[in-house]
Design a protein that fits this description.
alpha/beta; 2 domains; elongated
Length: 354
């Protein structure tokens, strides 16, 4: 234990050692540890965790949320980049690691490959042992192995108080992942949460003219985001400069890229920002190329103050978007709903026959 406690040679009391409060948060890793029991309970409640669920926790920190997850879930995969915290968690949850309920991974979440960990969790034991016979799981252990370890991996949920400095990167990685989570419950900055919700029916600001952003469209393209609760900065240690919020993203899938054309009326805006997934069914000839969709969205938001028609005029091949853009009039990218972007991408993906 002495190796964790650098400023004082005395070993911390058992209570302090168990809580991990002697480990200082690292600003470089975006660490702000949640200390509100009410917020922790709300996260668990929203996660709708069942006994057979597999939960991926990003940045478990001192393990406050991890403890709650282990009480409900069948398996928790906790990925911690901070080696000092990883070593602390390895001791704190030694029993759960031994029993297989907790898979503790020392890795950078942005380099983490969920498909390769399935092999360890469900098929075989993987890892190198240190002198204490403790398992160390790392993506490096998988180097050179097949990418297709499990063709149909078990579904999973992401529930985490994520590092705020990589929120966008985490959303992009897992929403665009080949094996997407079925649901995400995240603690993010309150301002970021508002941007993600954008002009959604569930947004309190929708009627006040809240605009969409490339972030909100990026999330809504794959799931249904909802603001759950605001969490004041005083409930974190150390306290960040801004308040936070719990959000959920449910029904994560790629159905929006495979939905019939009638699902997306042009210029729907507002309440059409998240098309119905219940009625969405694949239809040949109406599918949207995912890469083309993002090319159009990124080009459309490149110059926010310009009209969309000006931003996209160089992208349209053979004038395939001309009629759609004409129907949008003088709208800017921020005025378009997800449905509008889907129509634009489909038009570019499947231009009408001449």
């Amino acid at each position: 234990m002495k190796r964790y406690y650098k400023k004082n040679k005395k070993v911390p009391s058992s209570a302090i050692a168990k809580s991990g409060t002697f480990i200082r948060a690292k600003k470089s890793l975006g660490q702000n540890f949640l200390k509100s029991e009410t917020a922790l309970r709300k996260i668990i409640e929203v996660g709708e965790i069942k006994q057979d669920d597999v939960i991926l926790e990003i940045g478990p920190g001192r393990g406050a949320l991890t403890e709650k997850l282990l009480e409900k879930a069948g398996t928790v995969i906790a990925v911690e980049k901070d080696y000092e915290l990883f070593e602390f968690l390895k001791i704190k949850f030694a029993e759960q690691i031994t029993s297989g309920i907790l898979v503790l991974v020392h890795d950078d979440i942005l380099k983490f490959d969920i498909t390769r960990v399935w092999q360890n969790v469900f098929e075989r034991t993987l890892g190198s042992c240190d002198g204490n016979e403790q398992r160390k799981f790392s993506a490096e252990n998988f180097c050179g192995e097949s990418e297709n370890i499990l063709p149909n991996p078990k579904t999973y949920k992401i529930i985490a108080n994520i590092p705020y400095n990589i929120t966008g990167a985490i959303l992009k990685k897992f929403l665009e992942e080949t094996h997407q989570p079925e649901m995400m419950v995240l603690m993010v900055q309150h301002e970021v949460a508002q941007r993600i919700i954008g002009n959604s029916p569930s947004s309190a600001k929708a009627m006040a003219g809240k605009k969409e952003s490339i972030l909100s469209i990026s999330v809504k393209a794959y799931g249904e985001p909802k603001m759950i609760a605001k969490v004041e900065k005083r409930y974190f240690s150390p306290a960040p400069k801004v308040d936070s919020a719990i959000i959920s993203i449910k029904n994560i899938s790629r159905k929006n890229f495979n939905s019939p054309l009638e699902e997306y009326p042009l210029g729907g805006g507002g309440n059409a920002s998240t098309p119905s997934r219940e009625r969405a069914t694949p239809q040949e000839g109406n599918k949207v190329d995912e890469q083309k969709f993002w090319e159009i969205v990124k080009t459309g938001f490149a110059h926010k103050r310009k009209k969309l028609s000006s931003n996209l005029k160089t992208l349209s091949k053979n004038g395939s978007l001309a009629s759609v853009l004409e129907g949008l009039g003088n709208k800017r990218a921020e005025d378009l709903s997800l449905a509008d972007w889907i129509v634009l991408a489909r038009e570019e993906t499947n231009p009408p026959l001449e």
